[in-house]
Design a protein that fits this description.
Order of helices and strands: EHEHHEHEEHHH
Strand order of the largest sheet: 2-1-3-4-5
Radius of gyration: 17 Å
Oligomer: single chain
Number of helices: 7
Number of strands: 5
Length: about 190
């Protein structure tokens, strides 16, 4: 049985969410492996991009307000923006953003537990998360299927195949973006958001 790796990134993890991701979610086709990163906003986004847990994850759950600490050395941006940057480096990783804001039918954003919803935290996450996780797993299965087809197709350039497989395996050695490029990209997101 294959393994799907969950990674929860938050500067103050919500215990009920962590517990559900670790023990509550069940899947008949895959073993679920859970880990987390308690993020220090002063470390900056680049520390996460280089973290081996991030590279190895299949599904990342990231807090929307993760980078909104005013004291963060590398500036202030949201989990949604981090998701966009992460997708550049690791397009095969599914990212679900956990937010305190109201969500309207977005399959990649999940509202945090609200004690006034009439459910316990376990009931709430048990009712809302499986659909999001199952959609993310379906996308991962597509990546796996396409990579298998690519590996069997002799018409593709060997170097291109190597780059694609390196990216799928969490290796960014072929990535040509520098830290300055990523910083400029983040500044562009901030400008657009403003």
């Amino acid at each position: 049985m294959k393994t799907i790796s969950f990674l929860y990134i938050d500067d103050g993890p919500e215990p009920a969410l962590a517990k559900y991701l670790d023990k509550g979610y069940q899947n008949d086709k895959y073993n679920i492996e859970y880990s987390d990163i308690i993020f220090n906003p002063n470390d900056g986004y680049d520390s996460l991009l280089k973290n081996p847990k991030v590279r190895a994850a299949n599904i990342i759950f990231v807090d929307s307000r993760l980078f909104e600490n005013q004291n963060a050395m590398n500036g202030k941006f949201t989990g949604e923006e981090f998701k966009l940057v992460l997708k550049k480096f690791y397009p095969y990783i599914e990212v679900l953003v956990i937010t305190q804001n109201t969500i309207d039918n977005d399959i990649t954003m999940i509202s945090k537990y609200n004690p006034f919803c009439g459910k316990t935290p376990a009931e709430y996450y048990g009712s809302i998360l499986p659909t999001h996780i199952n959609n993310a797993i379906a996308n991962i299965e597509q990546y796996w299927l396409l990579s298998e087809k690519l590996s069997n197709n002799e018409n593709w350039d060997a170097m291109l195949k190597s780059k694609v497989f390196a990216t799928l395996n969490g290796n960014d050695q072929y990535d040509e973006l520098t830290k300055a490029d990523v910083d400029n990209l983040i500044q562009a997101f901030k400008d657009i958001q403003g």
